[in-house]
Design a protein that fits this description.
Order of helices and strands: HHHEEEEE
InterPro entries: Membrane_assoc_protease, NA-bd_OB-fold, NfeD-like_C
GO cellular component, one term: plasma membrane
Structural class: alpha+beta
Number of domains: 2
GO molecular function, one term: peptidase activity
Protein name: Membrane protein implicated in regulation of membrane protease activity
Membrane topology: Multi-pass membrane protein
Number of strands: 5
Radius of gyration: 25 Å
Length: 154
C-alpha cells in the first residue's frame, strides 16, 4: 500500500513541475517512482526513503544540468519582466538626474535615474534603458550603448 503513496507523490510533483518548469520537481518525482518500486518489492521504509534520496539526488545533479544545456541550445531564452526592458527606448517625462526622474517606457511610467556623474536629461529627451536597478530604470542618451542587448522598439 505504501507504493501508492509514493506513486501519488510522484504524480503531484510531476503536475507541479508543469507549473514551475524548472526541471527540479520532476527529478523528485523520479525519486518518488524509485521509492514506489522499492515499496512494491516489500522493502522497509528506510530503504524506500534512501531510494528516493539517492535517485532524486542523481537526477538533480547529473541529469538536470545536461537537460538544461540541451534545452537552452535548442531554444532562445526570452527575457521577461524588468530584464526585458534593458535596451529599450523611452521618453523623459520629468527631468532625470543621478537621483530621480520619470520616463515613459513601453506605455508605463517608470522612476529613472542617470548613471553616476552623467548629465541630467531634460523632459522630452529620448533615452535608452541601460539597466534596471530595483524598480528604477538607469538610463542614458539614446546613443548610449545597452549592456549586451540589441535595442527593441518602444
Amino acid at each position: 500500500m505504501a507504493w501508492l503513496w509514493w506513486l501519488g507523490g510522484a504524480a503531484v510533483l510531476a503536475l507541479l513541475e508543469i507549473v514551475s518548469l524548472d526541471l527540479v520537481l520532476i527529478m523528485f518525482a523520479g525519486g518518488a517512482l524509485a521509492a514506489a518500486g522499492m515499496a512494491a518489492l516489500g522493502a522497509p521504509v528506510w530503504v524506500q526513503i534512501l531510494a528516493f534520496l539517492v535517485t532524486s539526488g542523481l537526477l538533480l545533479f547529473a541529469l538536470r544540468p545536461w537537460l538544461l544545456r540541451s534545452l537552452r541550445s535548442r531554444m532562445t531564452l526570452t527575457e521577461t519582466n524588468a530584464a526585458a526592458q534593458v535596451g529599450r527606448m523611452a521618453v523623459v517625462l520629468e527631468d532625470v538626474t543621478e537621483l530621480h526622474g520619470r520616463i515613459k517606457l513601453a506605455g508605463e511610467v517608470w522612476s529613472a535615474r542617470t548613471e553616476d556623474e552623467a548629465p541630467s536629461l531634460p523632459v522630452g529627451t529620448e533615452v535608452r534603458v541601460l539597466r534596471i536597478d530595483g524598480a528604477t530604470a538607469v538610463v542614458g542618451t539614446s546613443s548610449s550603448a545597452p549592456h549586451g542587448r540589441a535595442p527593441s522598439a518602444m
